[in-house]
From TrEMBL:
<protein>
    <submittedName>
        <fullName>Peptidoglycan bridge formation glycyltransferase FemA/FemB family protein</fullName>
    </submittedName>
</protein>
<keyword id="KW-0133">Cell shape</keyword>
<keyword id="KW-0012">Acyltransferase</keyword>
<keyword id="KW-0961">Cell wall biogenesis/degradation</keyword>
<keyword id="KW-0808">Transferase</keyword>
<comment type="similarity">
    <text>Belongs to the FemABX family.</text>
</comment>
<dbReference type="Pfam" id="PF02388">
    <property type="entry name" value="FemAB"/>
</dbReference>
<dbReference type="InterPro" id="IPR003447">
    <property type="entry name" value="FEMABX"/>
</dbReference>
<dbReference type="InterPro" id="IPR050644">
    <property type="entry name" value="PG_Glycine_Bridge_Synth"/>
</dbReference>
<keyword id="KW-0573">Peptidoglycan synthesis</keyword>
<dbReference type="InterPro" id="IPR016181">
    <property type="entry name" value="Acyl_CoA_acyltransferase"/>
</dbReference>
Length: 372
């Protein structure tokens, strides 16, 4: 296959994404507008007939005091990762990005290496010999993913092994997903563990109601989100970020982003955002109050969001990131414990890869970001 690469319009990019079963929400053109501190560009790969066969959203971040850029393709590009001629896809991309002033490229191939079903994860948590997910025998392994990793290394792409290493908006390598394709809603509900089913019933008996909100309800979301940030000790994004996110994503597709609230006695006690691209639905951000946790609003809200994802004929409901530690002393252990109760599966992606186009600047910027 002879491939050419060039900048494409937003309309071409969106039409290509819409032609696919799904793609990451971070690879739609409007995601570039969400990231207002970055400059964005849509790239397209064309075969010898002139047909568009791949696309990528690139975000450019300028380094301090120098007109050079980090080029970042979050959970992308959207290409044929299992193609034997992978270098023919990536070499023209690197050449183009270098011309654009990039000193380094970061990308996140949307390729799953392994999956563990809920039973395997639970067994791993209970096993004294399993400290991390990789210590547990996987339910599914994709051998082609290892070939992709080998090809990338041979091309000069690099990967940091330490958790959270590197720079940019590093995306989670491990996620938790609930498959919906070919299952009934009853099957999904039966897949929940006993605690989840009991908590959903408890919320129902307590009168918890889950409702959808719109743009005007984002301040109510922000209040719960900031309460959560203070409790869980992370820096919250400002209200303007979510307002921009809502406007630009829903301008691209009127049902790209949704907002949900769990209400009890007229009060919003939990909230979440949902993102939709084709057959892939993500639980994106979540928040909850410090009180009324006993009425289990978060379980009720997740069940409603799952039902809505099913009504959209989604193939997968994605609960996003988890840590890979199975030890209850780890600060992220609560995430995997909460999510495994849904009966879904943990998935390990290939992770993010860097290509230093200027090794000196790449190293200097990496050190700068690590010290921020």
């Amino acid at each position: 296959m002879s491939l050419t690469l060039r900048t494409i319009s937003r309309e071409q990019h969106l039409a290509y994404i819409n032609s696919l079963p799904s793609a990451s929400h971070m690879q739609v053109p409007a995601w570039g507008d969400v990231k207002a501190d970055w400059r964005s560009e849509s790239l397209g790969w064309f075969d010898r007939t002139g047909a568009l066969v791949g696309a990528g959203l690139v975000l450019y971040r300028q380094v301090p005091r120098v007109k050079r850029y980090l080029a970042y393709l979050p959970e992308g590009p959207v290409i044929n990762w299992f193609a034997p001629n992978l270098d023919e896809w990536l070499k023209p991309m690197l050449a183009h990005l270098k011309q654009q002033g990039a000193f380094s490229v970061k990308m996140g191939p949307p390729v799953v290496i392994r999956r563990w079903d809920a039973a395997a994860v639970k067994a791993g948590i209970q096993s004294p010999d399993a400290r991390r997910l990789r210590d547990v025998e996987a339910t599914f392994i994709e051998p082609r993913a290892f070939e992709v990793a080998d090809r990338l290394r041979r091309m000069g792409w690099q990967q940091e092994e330490s958790e959270g290493a590197g720079f940019g908006d590093v995306q989670p390598r491990y996620v938790f997903q609930i498959p919906l394709r070919g299952r009934s809603l009853d099957d999904v509900h039966k897949g929940f563990n006993q605690l989840w089913r009991r908590n959903i019933k408890k919320a129902e008996k307590a009168g918890v109601q889950v409702v959808r909100g719109g743009y005007d309800e984002l301040p109510a979301w922000q209040h719960l989100y900031e309460v959560t940030a203070e409790r869980d000790k992370f820096r919250p994004r400002p209200l303007t970020y979510f307002q921009r996110m809502w406007k630009v994503l829903n301008a691209e597709d009127p049902d790209r982003m949704r907002l949900y609230f769990a209400m009890h006695e007229g009060e919003a006690v939990a909230a979440a955002t949902m993102l939709i691209v084709g057959g892939h639905v993500w639980y994106s951000y979540g928040a909850s109050a410090n009180h009324k946790r006993e009425v289990r609003p978060s379980n009720a809200m997740q069940w409603r969001m799952l039902q809505d994802a099913y009504a959209l004929k989604a193939d997968v409901y994605d609960l996003r990131g988890i840590g890979d530690s199975l030890e209850d002393t780890d600060h992220l252990f609560g995430l995997i414990q909460f999510k495994v109760g849904t009966g879904g599966e943990a998935a390990e992606y290939l992770g993010e890869w860097d290509f230093p186009l200027n090794k000196l600047l790449h190293k200097a910027f990496d050190i700068y970001m690590s010290r921020r």
